[in-house]
Every structure is written in C-alpha cells, then in structure tokens.
Amino acid sequence: MAGREHKFQLIGNRFTAILAVCLTGFLAWRDLRAAFSEAPYTAGWLITPLDSFPLPAWGVAAFNVAFYIYVVGLGVWFYRGVQGKERFVVAGFLLGLLGPIKALASPRAVAAIRTVQAVGMGVAFFAALTILLESPTLGKSDAKTAMRLLLFLGAFSVFAFLVGAVLYFTWR
Predict the structure, then answer these.
(1) Measured between alpha carbons, how far is 22 from 17 in angstroms, rounded to an integer?
(2) What is the pTM of this model?
(3) Which of 44, 52, 121, 135 has the fewest Cβ atoms within 10 Å of its own Cβ atom?
(4) Could you tell me how far CA 46 lies from the centroid of its own chain?
(5) CB 45, CB 157: distance < 8 Å
(6) Cβ contacts of residue 123 below 8 Å, gap of 6+?
(7) Contacts of 121 (CB under 8 A, 6+ apart)
(8) Helix boundaries (H) for 8-106
(9) Which of 172, 171, 160, 170 shows the shortest CA–CA distance to 32?
(10) Do the beta carbons of residue 98 and residue 26 sit within 8 Å?
C-alpha cells in the first residue's frame, strides 16, 4: 500500500463546487429537455472548418475523429485521476460524449442515447450538489438537513423521470 499514487481533486474548494453544480445543472437540464423533445437529431462535426482555412471532407472527418479520440482519452484520464463523488461528475460528462455516435444510429437508438445522457448528467448534477453540500464551510446541522432534502429531491426526480419516460415511450 506504500506505492499508491496520489489522486488529485477536481473539485477542491467551494467556488469550483458551485461552478460544477451550475455547469452540470445546465447540461442536465439541456439533456433532459432533449431526451423528451420530438425534434430530430441533426448530426454535426465537433469542429467545423473555418471559411478562411478550407479542408477537404476527408480532412475534416479525420481531424474530428482525432479530436474526439483526444477528448475521450482526456475524459478517461480525468476519471482515473479522481476518486469518490467526483467520479460520478466525470462519468456524467463522459456519457455526454456519446453525441457523435447518434449520427450513425437509428431514431430509436438516438432516443435511447439521449435518455442515457440525461440520466448521466442528472447523476453528475446530484453528485456535484452533494460535493457542494459536504464542503467544510457548511455547519453539520445545515449539511445534514441539506443532505436529507437532496436525497428527497433526488428520489423524487428519479421517480418523476422514470414515470415520464414510461409515459413518453408507451404513448408514442
């Protein structure tokens, strides 16, 4: 056990915890809205060529695939580097990287991928909120009350999401 490497902390203070809650909350809302919208998915590249620097189609595709592989590798590196609840935050962001796969999928698979992304970002949001509420600047009684409220809101949100998903997919 003496040779264990030191894991770094992605969310190390209250400010970064607030930023993580805001960012994951926005992305969870966006993914949840996309999961239940009837709008068709429009595929696009991660990086589009600039007008002043035109590339052939194969060059744009190769550049985007290389960039996507780099971003996924960076996400895996972050996942391996963090521990505890921060892993849920990073995993939620990694599920958000399923976007380019939707271009190759059927409409039913796109709906399933959108649902997985929404659930992943929802879990990441609640993990970031838990990290914020467990920060040392909150008092013990405040943190316990906030955690109970968070657990209730989390259970209610999961229940409402599941009921909405069942109703959405059965009445379709």
Answers:
(1) 9
(2) 0.69
(3) 52
(4) 17
(5) no
(6) 88, 91, 92
(7) 24, 27, 28, 31, 32, 92, 93, 95, 96
(8) 14-35, 57-81, 86-95
(9) 160
(10) no
Residue whose token pair is 């391996």: 80
Residue 104 in tokens: 């190759």
- Residues 31 and 118: beta-carbon distance below 8 Å: yes
22: tokens are: 């805001």
Joined together, the tokens standing for residue 79 give: 């996942």
Q: Any idea which residue has 């992943």 for tokens?
A: 120
pLDDT digits (tens, 9 = 90+) for 10-61: 787 778 888 888 888 888 888 888 888 777 766 666 666 654 567 777 777 7
Q: Which residue has the tokens 């939620």?
A: 92
Cα separation, 112 vs 98, whole angstroms: 11
